[in-house]
Design brief:
about 110 residues, Arc Repressor Mutant, subunit A, 4 helices
Length: about 110
């Protein structure tokens, strides 16, 4: 019942103009926006690459989250990468459940 009433179009337009002017005075920074975020990669990296294999071998425990954060991937893509590396014998499965799998580098 109570609360703030809806602004008219003219009032909203004036408020937006004021925000734009204030942003121009500050140096072009728009208000309320943080730094641009880069979306994680959807395409899986080449698992035959020596760079990826050497990075994975440096880790003590290899989980989908660590791979996703290290290579800027989505978790689903990281899981696929780990499955492929396990099939190739680069890493070996240690333990896990249906939600998470833990691997270690193959000696």
């Amino acid at each position: 019942m109570g609360g703030k009433k809806k602004l008219t179009l003219k009032q909203m337009e004036r408020m937006q103009d004021k925000k734009d002017e204030a942003a121009a005075k500050r140096g072009g920074k728009s208000s309320g926006l943080g730094p641009e975020k880069k979306a994680p990669g959807i395409i899986a990296p080449d698992t035959k690459s020596e760079k990826i294999i050497s990075e994975v071998k440096k880790m003590k425990a290899v989980t989908p989250y660590t791979v996703a954060s290290r290579f800027n991937l989505r978790l689903s893509v990281a899981r696929d990468v780990l499955d492929e590396l396990a099939q190739r014998g680069v890493i070996e499965y240690v333990s896990g459940s249906k939600n998470i799998k833990i691997y270690k580098p193959h000696d």
